[in-house]
Amino acid sequence: MSLELTPVEAAACCSPLARQPLSESEAEGIAPLLKALADPVRLRLMSIVASHEGGEACVCDLNDAFELSQPTISHHLKILHEAGLLDREKRGVWVYYRARAEALQNLAALIGGQAQ
Amino acid sequence: MSLELTPVEAAACCSPLARQPLSESEAEGIAPLLKALADPVRLRLMSIVASHEGGEACVCDLNDAFELSQPTISHHLKILHEAGLLDREKRGVWVYYRARAEALQNLAALIGGQAQ
DNA sequence: TGTAAATATTTACATGTGTCTATGTCTTGC
DNA sequence: GCAAGACATAGACACATGTAAATATTTACA
Q1: Which helix (H) or strand (E) is A43 found in, with range?
Q2: Where do the structural domains in chain A lie, given as residue ranges?
Q3: ipTM
Q4: What is the CATH number of domain B7-12+22-108?
Q5: 3-state secondary structure at position B65
Q6: Are A37 and B64 spatial neighbours (Cβ–Cβ below 8 Å)?
Q7: Mind telling me how many Å the CA of B40 is from chain A's nearest CA?
Q8: Backbone angles phi, psi at B102, to 5 degrees
Q9: Chain segment B3-37, per-residue pLDDT in tens
Q10: How far apart are CA B31 and CA A24, in angstroms?
Q11: Strands (E), A1-116
Q12: Which of A50, A56, A93, A100 has the largest CB neighbor count within 10 A?
């Protein structure tokens, strides 16, 4: 296990934005998580996976939802996975991605949490 | 008033990520808002402004909080303002930025909202 | 073993982004 | 009116990012 925090772990550690100024290192930890979400394709990927029955979806389904090449979808899924927003599980030939609900909720709390 | 929605307005219009898949146009509306936040300097700017007394801060204060040039801070503030996350008001020689709390809360609801 | 299918990796490239320097625009007070 | 200060804009540059084509890897199954 690495000493580096994943972006998701970094986001879980801070009080809400509006409560007190983020430190430089806190901000540098959280920004990559927002960056991972800040793309229309990745937003839709997250949304498709998170709203899919069972909270998971196969890459084959995801490829079909976009008019983009398979490597491009694979690239975006990797970014979401490395940010800690998607879990990855291989079952046979297929790979299933699962949304990490608590990761999204931590991020939401950081952004929208009340000042006190 | 323009027919274009600001990113903040686009975010207010959608059910949570995990409830149903975002449409392409919804995702394209929301991504710029996340992009605006997805930078360490802008995250700290938002946080400093939002947590400042009165919910607003003068650019002069913000410049002092970073070891960056004044135009760079001005550039980041413009991005946050155009995304709809900061309101801008000029009073005399000084410019004050104010955090739009409901914008942050709408975004948080979109990201972290429960599936049902 | 070997072939096909599902997914990932590599490489390349056009475009976007963060930063600075230089300059412009307002506002205030002399 | 003019000089000084606060902030914004313009231009330039290094670097990051989204995409696709080509290729590799892994798994199942005949």
Answers
A1: helix A40-51
A2: 7-112
A3: 0.90
A4: 1.10.10.10
A5: coil
A6: no
A7: 5
A8: -70, -25
A9: 456 666 666 667 799 999 999 999 999 999 999 99
A10: 24
A11: 56-58, 86-91, 94-99
A12: A50
Distance CA B114, CA B100 (A): 23
Contact A83, A6 (CB under 8 A): yes
- Through-space separation of residue B71 CA and nucleotide D11 C1' in angstroms: 13
B42's tokens:
């802008």
Domain A7-112 belongs to what topology?
Answer: Arc Repressor Mutant, subunit A (1.10.10)
Nearest CA to A108 among A1, A9, A11? A11
Residues from chain B that touch A40, judged by Cβ atoms under 8 A, are 24, 27-28, 30-31
Phi, psi angle pair for B25, to nearest 5°? -70, -35
What confidence tens digit (pLDDT) does each residue in B52-74 have? 999 999 999 999 999 999 999 99
Predicted pLDDT of residue B2? 44
Q: Is the pLDDT of residue A108 over 90?
A: yes
| Number of residues that make up chain B | 116
* Chain D footprint positions (protein CB, under 7 Å): 5-11, 17-22, 26-28
Which of B8, B14, B17 to probe the A interface (max A CBs under 10 A)? B17
The DSSP call for residue A22 is P
Give the pair of three-digit tokens for residue A26. 């806190």
pLDDT tier, A89 (very low <50, low <70, confident <90, very high otherwise): very high
